[in-house]
Amino acid sequence: MEPKRRLRLVGPSLLAVVIGLASCAHSSADHARLAARPGKVVDPNAEPAEPEVPHDDTPAMNTEYFLGTAESEAAQFAEFSRQIQELQRKAASEHSQPLQRGFHAKSHACLDGELRLDPRRDPRTRFGVLAEGQETRRIVARFSNGVGWKQADGELDARGLAFKVFGVPGTKYMADEQDTQDFLMTNSPTPVGRDAVEFMEFARANAKGRVAGLFFLAGHASTAAKALVRTNAVDSMVTERYWSGGVHHLGAHQAVKFSTRPCDLRLVREPARDGDDYLRRDLALAAKEGVCMTLYVQLQTDPVKTPIENSSVVWEETDSPILPVARIVMPPQDVPLAATAACDQLAFTPWHSIPAHKPMGHINRARRFVYAASQSLRGSKP
Q1: If you average pLDDT over every residue of the chain, what do you get?
Q2: Threshold 0.85, pTM exceeds
Q3: I need a surface site. Which of 40, 225, 305, 333 has the fewest CB within 10 A?
């Protein structure tokens, strides 16, 4: 039984329902044209393959494609890095705040806990931190709002869960952390946009104000509606479901998405929404009781229905069932309501990663540079 939810069709959410009717879907002709090529034989323990230059209209399983060439993407990501710092400075000026993260600026709290592997997990998922050998690892989980400035929790916004797993040896893609693996998720199965180009266009529009953001979304109905539907105010951070949005390796041979939901699907919390920080207060109360979430994996099953490069396509559970792989257990603990400085100083990026979980797709390739640029400007220390 899913947690109880109330439907609120107000403001942009009503627009989301309208434009959602226009959401994109491949026609049968498209599907035939994009039929999968036979899969490649890949050593699961190898370094994952680099993206390929597009060569035809037939995507292959577990294969990334440059949007153009490696050189054109590098130039594009450098420009995105400049833009995110411009947006950070703009937010600091207009909202009278210190320099914050470009996205997910407002922390509700960080909770300590453990990643406990499910002993019954599917053998296909047993790679990386989900492999045999170490069944429990320490984690810290950060709960946040989505925009790059601190606003009231009742405002329309995405919500985020990022958790950092400690005690993870192996080759890393970022030099600043050598013992961690990060997983970043939001409470929408897809980001806004099919790729980083559309996502950054939305970020720039949204920074100009809600009206500009809505106009952007209305003009990108097929790729934005699914993400917009979930920007309503939420009851609690611990009753939400979260998705990775982008795709990751799980071993070099396969592509996956991650998601979480409460261990108890009947869990309901209905705090009073009587202040700007009601989500933080509710999270602090929930932490006193302990918080538990189940981590799931979806395996890529079809290059069209479960694509890598088009992030706006939901990986439907009818096409790729969710497989439980672990529990994120945050035991009872005290969370100081006024203290988020230590939480804010943590740096989260999907590129704090070992090869077995290497991020995939254009939107994730961009995040490697955009997140680093954002962190560099705000001067945080891991």
Answers
A1: 87
A2: yes
A3: 40
